[in-house]
Each structure stands twice: as C-alpha cells, then as structure tokens.
Write a structure and sequence with these properties.
binds glutathione, about 10% strand, single chain, Glutathione S-transferase Yfyf (Class Pi), Chain A, domain 2
Length: about 220
C-alpha cells in the first residue's frame, strides 16, 4: 500500500493527502519529522515523500502527477492540454511566488521565533505584487479555482490559503488575501467530509511540532 511520509502540520504533506483522499486511493501515513529523514528517500530531507512498491518519490507536485497517472480515476486534471497547463501554472505561481515568499515569516508566525522588520517589509512588498499576479490567473466565480472540476490547484489552495492568511494576519495584522473572496471559496470547496479529519490531524500535529521546536 502507498505510504505518505512526513508530518500533518506541513501544507505540502496535506496537499498530497487531499489528492489521495479525493481520489479515494488507499494509503497509510508514517510520521517522519524533518531532521530524521533518510536522504535516499527524499534527497533534501524534505517532506512529503511517498513510498510506492517501486520506491520513494519526493516533491509534492511530482507526487500529484504520479498519482494522476497511476490512478487516473477521479482525475484532478482537466482533459484539455491547455486547461491542464493552466492548472499547473496556478500551482507554480502559488508555491513559488506566494507560499515560498511567505515562508520567511513562519518562524515568528508559527514557531515562536523572531523575524526582522526588514524581512517583514521585504516579504510584504513581494506578496502584494505576487498576489495581484496570482489573481489574474484564478477565478472565484465558479466552484473551483481554475477548471469546472476539482484540480491540483484546489488541492494546493485548500492548504495554502488558510495557512498564509493566518501567517499574514499574525505578522501584519491584516490578511494578505483580503481582496480575494477566499472565505467563500474555502466554505464552498473546503466542506468536503475528509477535510474535518485532515484539519484535526493538522492541529494535533502542529501542537507536537511547536513542542518539539520549543524543546530543541
Ligand atoms: N517543494 C517541496 C517543498 C516541501 C517543503 O518545503 N516541505 C517542508 C515542510 S512544509 C520541509 O520539508 N522543510 C524542511 C526543509 O526544507 O529542510 C514540495 O513541494 O514537496
């Protein structure tokens, strides 16, 4: 059986978990913390990675592509090649230009550390610019972010939107997505029954993660 390895506080881990649950593919979870990762399974020691019968796969987007090819039922990509490209474009924009930029704030927003004012200012400028770009790519007037059906873009959005909203609210006192209707989107798309389990796993694991960071 497939094994999803990592920890449930990770947004990238949860993106893959949503795809597995959405596709109704059987899987097990193995709790692996950063620092204790076998680099032959995930070369940079990052989570998530997926253990398959043939070996391990790292990088969440590569894992999603693998799942799509291996389990084509309940597809998370449109059939049209152009629309497929648009889904992938949204995921890349979200992760390279928003999530990875906002990640510099995580030590203070999530883990009780401190981030310099200079970093906060620099990140804010980049996020303001990149979110305008992102909003040119997505649509909020249809059920899903890019296509008429749930796609990889929604797997990413369901985890990155709430996390980055919270992080920016904590650091700037204002949600960076305030001009986008993400609350409606989350209510509409995030009401899948499996999201309850996913969110409770995430909360429980976040407490463990914070305790580990404080204890180290
Ligand atoms: N591009 C990677 C990003 C994964 C990632 O950054 N995971 C974090 C946890 S949320 C991690 O493993 N961080 C540890 C590290 O970078 O050393 C993916 O999509 O899987």
């Amino acid at each position: 059986m497939l094994k999803l390895c990592g920890f449930a506080a990770s947004n990238y881990y949860n993106k893959v978990k949503i795809a597995l649950l959405e596709k109704e593919v059987a899987f097990e979870e193995e709790l692996v913390w950063v620092g204790g990762i076998d680099k032959s399974l995930s070369p940079l020691g990052k989570v998530p990675y997926l253990l398959t019968e043939q070996g391990a796969i790292s990088e969440s987007n590569v894992i999603l592509e693998y799942l799509e090819e291996q389990y084509p039922h309940k597809s998370l990509l449109p059939t049209d090649p152009y629309q497929r490209a648009k889904v992938r474009e949204v995921v890349i924009h979200f992760e390279l230009y928003i999530e990875l930029v906002a990640r510099a704030l995580f030590p203070e927003a999530l883990l009780g550390g401190k981030v310099s004012d200079e970093t906060k200012e620099k990140v804010k400028k980049q996020l303001d610019r990149n979110i305008i770009a992102f909003s040119r790519l997505v649509k909020f007037d249809q059920p899903y972010l890019v296509s008429k059906e749930m796609s990889f873009a929604d797997c990413a959005a369901l985890v990155h939107f709430p996390l980055i909203s919270n992080v920016t609210k904590t650091i700037y006192g204002k949600d960076i997505f305030t001009d986008l209707p993400i609350h409606e989107y989350m209510t509409r798309v995030g009401n899948r029954p499996y999201m309850i389990r996913m969110n409770s796993d995430r909360k429980a694991n976040t407490e463990l993660l914070i305790a580990r960071v404080k204890g180290s």
